[in-house]
Amino acid sequence: MRVLIISDTHGEAKLLKEVCHRVGADHVIHCGDFTTDVAELPTVPLTIVQGNCDWEDVPKDVLWDAGRIRFYVTHGHKYQVNSSLLPIQYRAEEVGAQVACFGHSHFPVCEQVGNLLLLNPGSITSPRGYRTPTYAVLEILGDHSVEVHFYDPKDQRVPDRGGKYYLTSDDSML
Description:
This protein is mainly β. 11% of the residues lie in helices and 34% in strands. It has helices at 13-23, 86-94, and strands spanning 2-6, 27-30, 46-48, 61-66, 69-74, 99-101, 109-113, 116-120, 135-140, 145-151, 157-166. It has a six-stranded mixed β-sheet with strand order 3-2-1-9-10-11, with helices on one face. A five-stranded mixed β-sheet has the order 4-5-6-8-7, covered by helices on one side. Belongs to the metallophosphoesterase superfamily. YfcE family.
């Protein structure tokens, strides 16, 4: 399964739709701050959460199961992701997630801590502290692993982010 993870598009619905179309993912996760009407979002299998700049009434966090991999999706501002990843790590572990997707900082992160992958796709419109706008594509592989690649909005691979990560699931959580 191929999952597009994107965040902080800040009103750029056209660019978001273009990226979704080009990537052709099985599922799209938007980690908030889409700052547009929900009706303007792409009509694809989509999990979205409310960011600190969003006005639409969508969930603030979501658990989404993709086979044996459980995703915890939130924007991140309520977990102070600009200063530490520990609060979001603890919350993701508490809900039994193997992947925590978040945004808010506009800075791409892909870091494994134990059996948890912390993933911030960055921002395709306004990166902060990183040289280029980014989004992430996560492939769920058959050997309890995932592979993550980061790209810029023109689909050029960002080589210094991502990798292959082994995750196990606790079947009692699913």
